[in-house]
Amino acid sequence: METTTIFRMILPALIIAFVLHRGYYIKKNIRPDDDTLKKREEGTASKLASLLGIIGLLSTLVFVINPGWLAWANLPLPIWLRLASPIFAVAGIALLQWAQNSLGKSWSDTPRMMSEQKLITSGPYQFIRHPIYTAFILILGSTLFISANWLIGLAWIGMTLLEIISRINFEENLMIEYFGDQYREYMKRTGRLLPKLI
């Protein structure tokens, strides 16, 4: 099988797996609005992230149909790097699943504080405060290397980073507001997206 065909199959499979995983947990954890104490309102960053997501989705579709149409945005990446990239995506999916399991009913697709919410510090949360966002970076960041196309990669990475930066700032302020010193102490021993080495 031609290498280009392999990447044309891997890329959509990755995006579909990500969307199905996310959709499953959104459906599984539907919470009524009256269970919400405070939530983030969508701003400019979220709207721009949505636009980049559409560009990412459309460019991925074009890549699957005919990668030659996007040849103007190709990157000269070595084949070994492109073949190794799905490993990062799989690691991201494993981390995402671990984080989802650790959060249980405390997870929400929208950054918010729910009544009777607990501060989760087990599973990957004992090392990093936002393992789900680390997983998003691993999964959607791998699209750049799998496709070897800067348009596809930057659309997905840009969407992810915009959304993550906006969410992290809101979530950490919210956690401090509701959990106070308990969360401040937790912040001292954990990293945001990567474990603290010291």
Task: Walk me through the topology.
Layout: H1 3-28, E1 36-39, H2 44-65, H3 79-103, E2 112-114, H4 131-147, H5 150-179, H6 181-189
Antiparallel strand pairs: 1-2
Provide an overview of this structure.
It is a single chain. The chain has 198 residues and is mainly α. It has six helices and two strands. It has helices at 3-28, 44-65, 79-103, 131-147, 150-179, 181-189, and strands spanning 36-39, 112-114. It starts with a helix and ends in a 9-residue tail after the last helix. The mean pLDDT is 90.
Task: From the structure above, extract its key features.
about 5% strand
In the sheet with the most strands, the strands line up as 1-2
SSE topology string: HEHHEHHH
Average pLDDT value?
Answer: 90
Q: Name the beta content range.
A: under 5%
Are there runs of 5+ residues with pLDDT below 50, and where?
A: none
What is the general shape? Answer: elongated
Please give the oligomerization state of what you see: single chain
Query: Helix tally?
Result: 6
Radius of gyration over all CA atoms, rounded:
18 Å
* Main sheet specs: 2 strands, antiparallel
What class would the helix/strand composition place it in? mainly alpha
Number of strands: 2
